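User: Can you write out an input/output pair for a complex, sequences first and structure second?

Assistant: Here is one pair. Inputs:
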Amino acid sequence: MGVATVTSTTGEAGANTVKGAGGPAQLEVRGVTKAFPGCLANDDISFRIEPGEIHALLGENGAGKSTLVKIIYGVLQADEGELIWEGKPVTIASPHDAREMGIGLVFQHFSLFETMTVLENIALAMNDVRDMDALRKQVLEVEKTYGLPLDPDRHVYTLSVGERQRIEIVRCLLQNPKLLILDEPTSVLTPQEVEKLFETLRRLADEGCAILYISHKLHEVKALCQKATVLRGGKVVGGCDPREETAKSMAEMMIGQKLTAPDRGKSREFGDVRLAVSNLSLESDEQFGTDLKGINLEVRGGEIMGVAGVAGNGQNELFRALAGETEQQAAPDSIKIDGKSVAHFGPRRRRRLGATFVPEERNGHGAVPDMSLSENGFLTAFRRMALSARGLIREVPTKSFADNIIKTFDVRTTGSGAEAGSLSGGNLQKFIVGREILQDPGVLVISQPTWGVDAGAASAIHQALLDLAAKGTAVLVISQDLDEIYAICDSVVVMAEGKMSKPRPMADVSIEEIGLLMGGLHDLEGNATPANNTQVEGGRVGQA
Amino acid sequence: MEWIVPFILTVITASTPLLLAASGELITEKSGVLNLGVEGMMLVGAIAGFAVTASSGSASLGILAAVAAGTLMSLIFAFLTLTLMANQVATGLALTIFGVGFSALVGSGFVGFAIDPLPALSIPGISAIPIIGPILFGQDFLVYLSIAAVIGIAWFLSKSRAGLILKAVGDSHHSAHAIGYSVIKIRYLATMFGGAMAGLGGAYLSLSYTPMWAENMTAGRGWIALALVVFATWRPGRLVAGAYMFGLISVMQLHAQGAGIHVPSQFMSMLPYLATVIVLVIISSDRAKIRLNAPACIGQAFRAAQ
């Protein structure tokens, strides 16, 4: 106690300067090493985070960020090295210990329980047992203070990805953390929501909370963080002040080589309409899904059209309707591929007409995790690539098709016999995108092409999509990442509450306009329906 | 109308072993473990309870022995499936086959023995009230225990934090692990509880229902208990309804034969399973309901990721 009093009296003079100058770091990582069979995930990692500092941890997939986070959160134990917490060496034996000390973690792969309510999910991650009613009050309070609307009694499986992430954030904020770790937190938010999250984080930092921020979105890191540590291959390869770097220079530090911006080529000529959706209305097959309301769009050959929008506004339903995964009640001609009415077709018949699809979820939807890459390649390509004959799998072409994807798209794996589930997210995504692109489709519908994918892989995927469009394919990109839409798309539509805005050429539309459209402010030309995002959420909660 | 009280009494006795075993399996399954060895654990519980009661003369010791035997059986299962990560379905089937043979081996010396049935815990005065008295206040200890256990489990699952954690482990073991719960430890405990309750169910058969030992005396009740858990969509309240309904069907089957109604007995024995299949079809048509109550990770081995 005596020590604390001394610090607070002497600290008065420098209260507003950056905290911790000279004082103990909130957390210091010293020489942390962790080996797994066959790979050294963390190799002698050292860095420090001061109280009130927003510190970025940068690195490609597989650079060792997740392992390091797990060590700090007590999920894993380091083989060597130590963690110094507020000046004292500590052992963090479990997440429970970590939370006890004041470490909060917003997981990249959400650690939620689908069949439980929001409130139960929050209760499960609290160390101290609290009365549920008291907890509910606290939750609502935190939601209000930080502007994170959530109905505590809804079941998680009915929530969108964005809403799910809010649970994780609220869960951490309730514990009054001294160090908050966020793993890829903004991939599911609108620009306005990102700004709001940043306000929250800056406010927490001002209150003295240290923040370890992991993201691939380097301009966000630049806007938010005061310091960055860059990991590559399990080692610290450098540190920098993101405010003084460019997104490009940081990306190059991460991947250790020069980065080339996607080459959009010359201004492209667009051909005939290859994918047409007219007046498509569809009730969602999910209990709390979003119904599609009168969707119209046309994508021409050679055009890349982006579908922007906050998660849960009908994008999943749109994807499933286009891919033929939903049973179609709509009129057959509400979806046309190359002029043919296909709305009553299943996925296989649509693929036969030259359409291919890449869903958002890699494991379990885009690929079968327990099957090998060549088997996964076979599953969608067997017809177009003639991988089967007389009902049997043609082993040699199947394997060489997979090998071709691996080679062309630089998929890092042990070979085409590797299980899909053993690949990192970015590598599996490259494989799945490659599988569809190499089938030389006339129409490609792709959902969240680079979600959770590192900069190197993302730019490879972007380039592949641009090259594909240059060959005359109509590409529809459903994405929540506006940078991505700006980087590759020729035109953009925005989805909100199951409705779609009119297509606009990319060059004519500002990021603020898109943000407003995302919030449900349709038809800027006239009859505006004023509804900001918070109210939209509230309306849906009310129905449930 | 004199037949009604004895009729209800036989329904209760027919339902109690089902309820005991099924409520244990409910907890096991809620944690994400599918133990198909209920029949085997019941049989081993039955012979352990009978043998100890017959040799020591104490029914209390017998019940304890049945609990211990059921728990030990489930520990074998837990070690194989949770620690060594053997396939749960195959291991559960093996456990039943093992239980059938092992109980017959141990029980061969006890065939033909007779013991006193478990005494009814009557309350003087109240138990003498016509109709209600013998039904509500004239049962033995295990009948009351079976009801108390279900009420306790219902409370545990819906109100307690430990119950929430148990459900969490069954819903997503990876999430539970990430937050810091010990998935394996919780599953061990849940599996052991299931074993203990199956042992009790077995003991009820050999100590109260028919106070004797006969080879394979559970006669498929373990399987009905398993079906009941699904039938009840993992809800304790419906478990009671289901157990008593199945008890009623099995008693009616005997009465129908006694009354000379010529329904083949095999048809009647088939009914509980048929009912389960029908209910499964009905509840499966509503995906949301299944999702809300069925443990999503059931039957999956858990290996902590790196």
